[in-house]
Amino acid sequence: LFEDDSESFKDATPSEIETFIDDYERKKNVRFNDLQREAIAKCILKRTHVICGFPGTGKSTIFDVVKEFYYSIYENKEYNIACLAPTGLAIKNLIKKCKVVSPEICGTIHRMAFNINHYMISNYIDDISIIKQKTEPNMLSPMDRFILKRHSKIVKYKTLIPNMIVIDEFSMVD
Fold it and tell me: pLDDT tens digits, residue range 5-46?
């Protein structure tokens, strides 16, 4: 898990984290062992953390607790989590286990790096006022359609810059 270092980060106390874990256990009817509780607390308290373990040891569940913690603090509105994985199957499995508020910024590492990231960091916004004056769809040229599509993606993804990036199955990355 990678946690952003922005000014908007809200620090949590260990007692708040313990209370949240206890509430999560009651709500989801699960029990965490001491190592899992420690991993959850470290993920929340530290800016960078790696969770590793064999299948079935609770890595996805630990992420789900951390995700729910931040969503509760930020009320699901201001906190974007990008879930990434090297393969489509790995990301599909992670998203199925852990629902996120902004699935648009989840996908393969390749998709984020080459298809989405440049929209998030772009400082260029097209002037679409002239295109908007064309009232009939058949008046739009292919270039007009391209510019409108690019403009809408830049506007959309600028509001979805991730606060947290989670990379699943990282051992598959070279």
Answer: 444 445 788 899 999 999 999 999 999 999 999 999 998 888
The length of the chain, given as a count of residues:
174
47 burial type by CB count under 10 A (0-12 exposed, 13-18 middle, 19+ buried): exposed
Comparing CA positions, the residue from 110, 24, 120 lying closest to residue 67 is 24
Residue 88 tokens read as 């489509």
Helical H runs in 46-170? Answer: 59-74, 88-97, 109-111, 117-121, 129-132, 142-158
Angle at 146 between CA 140 and CA 152, to 5 degrees: 105
Q: Which residues contact 6 (CB under 8 A, 6 or more apart)?
A: 163
Short-list 10, 4, 44, CA closest to 24: 44
Cα dihedral 56, 93, 153, 150 sign: positive
Instruction: Note the pTM of the prediction, 2 decimals.
Output: 0.75
Contact 128, 111 (CB under 8 A): no
